[in-house]
Amino acid sequence: ELQQKVEETELLKMELQMLETERVRLSLVEEKLLDVLQLLQQLRDLNISKRALGKILLSTLESCRDPQPGKAHLFDVLDTLYHELTACELLQSQPLEKAQSRQSLSNPLVISC
């Protein structure tokens, strides 16, 4: 009976570790998604054309068409989209003061659960 309790404890520890790993992964995805949404908000405020935004999205999807084994595909797509958006000429030409003042405002994209 004692051996059974030890085995159950070990299984619960492994499950807890897997849950913690998943929680961390989801937290990273959430942070990256928030970054992407903030960039999209900035681009919308700068009146980016739907065509230009579509090209960025298609470029991202083309880059991530073949998922790499061992990598979280969702995070990879979000990360690639984030880098594609940061390379956008509209954001590059935005004055530094304006970008900093936007970031200092409270975040309208935070979702309370």
From TrEMBL:
<dbReference type="Pfam" id="PF15799">
    <property type="entry name" value="CCD48"/>
</dbReference>
<protein>
    <submittedName>
        <fullName>EFCC1 protein</fullName>
    </submittedName>
</protein>
<dbReference type="InterPro" id="IPR031601">
    <property type="entry name" value="CCD48"/>
</dbReference>
